[in-house]
Amino acid sequence: MTKTVEPMTSGTIWKQMVFFALPLFFGNLFQQLYNTVDSLIVGNFLGSSALAAVSSSGSLIFMLIGFLSGIAGGAGVVIARLYGAGDEAAVQRAVHTTAAFGLVAGVIMTALGMLFSPQILLWMGTPESVLPQSVSYLTIYFFGSLWFVMYNILVGILQAVGDSRHPLYYLIVSSAVNLVLDVAFIRFLHTDVGGAALATVISQAISALLCCIHLLRSRECYRLEPRKLCFDPLYLGQIIRIGLPSGVQNSIIAFANVLVQSNVNSFGEMAMAGYGAYSKVEGFGFLPINSFTMALTTFVGQNLGGREYERTRKGVRFGVLAAVSMAEVIGVLIFLLAPQLIAAFDATPEVVRFGTDKARTSVLFYCLLAYSHSIAAVLRGAGKSMIPMLVMMVCWCLVRVTFLMITVPLTHSIQMVYWVYPLTWALSSLAFFWYYTHGNWLDFHIADKRYPLGEEKE
C-alpha cells in the first residue's frame, strides 16, 4: 500500500523533526486556547472569584485525564514501532485495540470524574467562596470526558504514523467554535462558569468527531473500521506495559500539583487567581518544547522499529538541544513581560503581583524542565517508560510534597511554593542525565519477546 504519510526512518533528520513538530506546536497552541479562552473570558466578565474557580480545577482535571493520556502515549509508541517496521496487519490490530480501549476508558472516566471531583475539591481546601463554581465547572467538564479521551486516543494514532497536520486542522475549527460559544454562553446567556465548561466540551466533541471521520475514510493501513473494534491481547498488553507507567506518572505528578494548589489556596483568592493566570502563560510558553518532545517520542519509536539505531542517536541529540535552547529563550521573554502577560487574564494589581512573582521565580529555569521532558520522551519512545515514572515520582512528587510540608508551615511564605518547581526540575535533570549517559536505553530489538511485532513474526 502506498503511504501518504511517510515514516520518519529516512530523510534529513532536522527537517523531519521540525516539520513534524510545527503542526504539533500549532495544534497544541489551539488546544491550550480551550482553557485559556475560558480563563480570559471568565476573568474579564465574571471576575477574580470565577477565575479562581476555573484555575483551581486544572490540576484535578489533569490528574484524571493525564492517566489515560499516558496510556494513549503507550499506544502511540506501539503503533509507531509497527508503522516504522512496515507491518501493516499489526498496525491494523493495534489501532483497533487502541480505539476500543478509548471507548471503554472514556465511559469510566465520566463516572469517576462526576462522582469524586466535588469531594476532592473539598480535600484541596478550595475556599467556600469559589467552591460552588468549581463544582459546577468540573461536573460539566467530566460529563464530556468521553470526547476528551477519544480525542487524545485518535490524535495519538495519527501522530504515531507521522501525521501531525490533520489534528491541527481539526483543532483550528474546534477552537473557533469554543471561542464563539464561550462568548455566547457567558457574555450573552449569563451561564456563569458552567457555560465555559460546556463550550469546551462541545468544541472538544467536534475535534474528536473530525479525527474519527478522517480515520474512517482513510485508505491507509491505520484506517478505522468499526466492525474490527476489539481487544487484541498481544497489543493491549504492549500498550499497557508501555503506557501504564506514563499514565501513573501523569496522575501522580498531577496529584502532587493538587497538593501544591492546596498550598496556594491557603493564601486566598488573589493568590489562586494570580497562580492560575501564570499557569496559563506557562502553558503557552512551553508549547514549542512540548511539540519537540512529542516529535522525539514518535521519531525514536519509528526508528527503533526500523532498526535505525545511529539515526535514532542523531535525532535525539538534535531534539534535546532544540528543546532546551527554545525553553531558555522563552523563559527570558516571559521574565521580561510577566506583568503584562498576567494582566491579560486579570488586571487586579494583587493578582498581577502574585502571578509575576511566580513567573520570575521559575521561568529562567525552563531549560531544566525542557531537558527532563526531552529525555523522558526519548525513553518512552524506546519503551522504557518505567524510568521516567520512577524519576518523576521521586523528584516531582515525593520531594516536592515533602519540601512544601516542611517549609510552608515554617515560613508561611508563598515563595516556598514558587521555588519547589525549579528545585525539583534540577533534581530530575540530574537523574535523567545520569541515566542517559550511563544507562543502556537503546537495548531494544524489535523481534524480541518483550515487544513482538505480531504472532506471525515471533
Strand residue content:
under 5%
How would you classify the helix and strand content by structural class?
Answer: mainly alpha
Q: What's the N-to-C terminus distance?
A: 23 Å
Q: Which radius of gyration do the C-alpha atoms yield?
A: 21 Å
Can you write the helix and strand succession as a string? HHHHHHHHHHHHHHHH
What would you call the shape?
globular
Strand elements, count: 0
List keywords for this structure.
single chain; 458 residues; mainly alpha; disordered C terminus
Topology summary:
Layout lengths: L12 H33 L2 H8 L2 H28 L2 H36 L7 H13 L1 H16 L4 H24 L4 H25 L15 H33 L3 H17 L1 H19 L3 H35 L5 H14 L3 H16 L4 H26 L3 H24 L20
Helix pairs in contact: 1-2, 1-7, 1-8, 1-10, 1-11, 2-5, 2-10, 3-4, 3-6, 3-9, 3-11, 4-5, 4-6, 4-9, 5-8, 6-8, 7-8, 9-15, 10-12, 10-13, 11-12, 11-14, 12-13, 12-14, 13-16, 14-16, 15-16
Quick rundown:
The chain has 16 helices and no strands.
Overview of the molecule:
Helix content is 80%, strand content 0%. The chain is built from 16 helices and no strands. The chain has helices at residues 13-45, 48-55, 58-85, 88-123, 131-143, 145-160, 165-188, 193-217, 233-265, 269-285, 287-305, 309-343, 349-362, 366-381, 386-411, 415-438.
